[in-house]
Design goal:
By secondary structure, this protein is mainly beta. The protein contains three helices and nine strands. An eight-stranded antiparallel barrel has the order 1-5-4-3-2-6-7-8.
């Protein structure tokens, strides 16, 4: 069973000058609830259908199945999505032997920037990027599926700290 194992952080420093590439992502959720999601994503000109299971080990890992689909298929499936489309740019930033994915959000989530690093195991060592701050792994309010229903613009100042 394919597992996604990642750590998530708030971004507090410059990452753009360190990035190797970036792409624009629009994604919606056909179904989201009880930690399970069916997501449709358009990343530049490619589409993806992703199914994720509930988080395990405090949000560090979860089952993930992803299949590439055509751009037209993704656009068609977007019409079936629940309200609240996520719009972001993903910056790929190599740090040591890993690549951090830094998501800069737009729309109702403007101002939020988070970084994730995918690991091969829950205990794998990784170099902490110089631009990351507080770790938010497992904090559901930072999940894209949650940002869709409770966007960053609605958070209190205390929630943004």
């Amino acid at each position: 069973m394919p597992l996604e194992i990642e750590r998530k952080f708030l971004v507090v420093g410059d990452y753009k000058s360190l990035s190797a590439s970036h792409s624009r992502i629009m994604q919606g959720y056909i179904c989201s609830g009880r930690g399970r999601t069916v997501r449709v994503r358009l990343r530049d000109d490619k589409g993806y259908l992703t199914i994720k299971g509930p988080s395990l080990n405090g949000g560090l890992s979860r089952y993930e199945f992803e299949k590439e689909i055509t751009k037209d298929e993704a656009l068609s499936l977007m019409r079936l999505c629940e309200p609240g489309i996520i719009d972001k740019t993903r910056w790929l930033v190599p740090v040591g032997s890993h690549t951090y994915e830094v998501d800069e959000f737009y729309g109702d989530n403007q101002g939020l920037v988070v970084a994730e690093v995918e690991l091969g195991s829950e205990h794998e060592d990784y170099e902490r990027a110089p631009f990351v701050g507080r770790e938010v792994t497992g904090d559901r309010k930072y999940y894209n599926s949650s940002l869709r229903t409770y966007p960053y613009k609605d958070w209190t100042e205390a929630e943004k700290l």
